[in-house]
Amino acid sequence: MRPGTWQVPECPHLIEYSAAVLDEIRLAAVDGFFSLPHGGMEIGGVIFGRRSGESVRIEAIRPMECEHAMGPTFVLSENDKEQLKCQLEQARRDPLLEGLEIVGWYHSHTRSEIFLSDLDMELYDGFFPEMWQVALVVRPSGLKPVRAGFFFRGGDGSVRRSSSYHEFILGAVDPSAAAMGAFVPQGLPSTPPLVEKPAQPAPTNPEMPFSAANAAQEKESLQAEFVPPAFMMPLESKPSRVRFWVVLSLLVLAAGGAAYLTSGSWMQAFLPKTSRVRLHLFDHDGQLSILWDRAALASVDLEEGTLEILDGTNATTVMLNPDRLHSGQFDYARSNYIVQVHLTVKTARGATIEEYSSFYGQPPGAVNSSALEQQRIDLTAEAEQARSDLKKQELRTRELQRSLELMRQLLRRENERRGAKNQMPAAASPLAEEQIRKGSLAEPAEISNARTTTPASNLPTIRPSSP
Length: 467
Description:
- This protein is α+β, with helices and mostly antiparallel strands.
- The chain has helices spanning 19-33, 78-91, 118-127, 175-178, 212-225, 241-261, 263-266, 322-327, 369-422, 430-438, 445-453; strands at residues 4-6, 14-17, 44-52, 55-63, 101-108, 134-139, 146-151, 167-170, 280-284, 287-291, 302-311, 314-320, 329-333, 338-347, 352-360.
């Protein structure tokens, strides 16, 4: 069976696609939509196929790596762009993609409609610049079918960014038909062909012949025999104007109540249509820049706006006047890992525009756990080294104290020895000599030693005193 096709008069070439490939894109977009609250995570990838004459055929896809450093929207960082360059280079050597070339790219919008933003065009022109390369934008929704639209370059190289020329529904693919490239809309299962059966004649009984006339006569006889009793006969109703007005009043009240309860949905059809703003969050060293499309609000008569910021558990509400809304930017110093932003814009004509976005990133000033562990190890090693040096210094101090005490003892002994050597014994007094001679006083040991060591010539002469 023939593959699906997409073509508009403004497109210079016919776009053919495999239903199985587009269903793979649909499943990836839906998975990203339900991965996070308030819009989920946007995804993207590279489209591969063949180019023949004026037609481009989509036959395979490869997802792009996106670290979502700027939030859940599909915006590539510098690292992601380097990864994309390597991916496009490696695709040329992939044996599974042999014979195929890069014919475009795809991505999903989970918080805005199907269009190409400035960042989308930057990616489109930077990595897919050929005139025949296309872009596919997919818009998943909660309970609604997934919508999609192609974008292309015209003969002059320009791209209509505001919307696709023709949006279409991405439906589920019947596995049996996907192998042949057939497309089955979502919610419509394939049905087997009807086989007409030959009409069978009514059974007849030769003993009891049957005819339409006999059946009619039997029915009339039964009706004539049965007469219902009085309590089963319906009462004769008389027309009453009171009952008519009561019923009419109840119907009016029911209609008014239903209209009031559903006013939030049907009144939107009478409100003026406004364009959507694309809310983006960018972080630079803890300074969170909240950006929205000010060009979409340039021609709108604004009344006021509200910016609700949930920084972890800290809630902040900022009122925005029309001048601040037209500036398209608000800076906020974040302090937590997760920051959720809700922008509400009210126009002078009563319309309301709401956008949600979230940012996930390392809090400012936070240190990586591995760095903390390494720092703890370094500090522990320094403490052990300081403890070892202190113990060595203590042992050295003790050795010095012992050496000092030994030197003091040696110095004390040397001084005592020198003092004993230099001290000479004193001469005995005459009275002491007399007492020694008479034997009344023992001679001190010092004097005795002195006598033995002192020459006689040096001893004083003892003379008796005159009468």
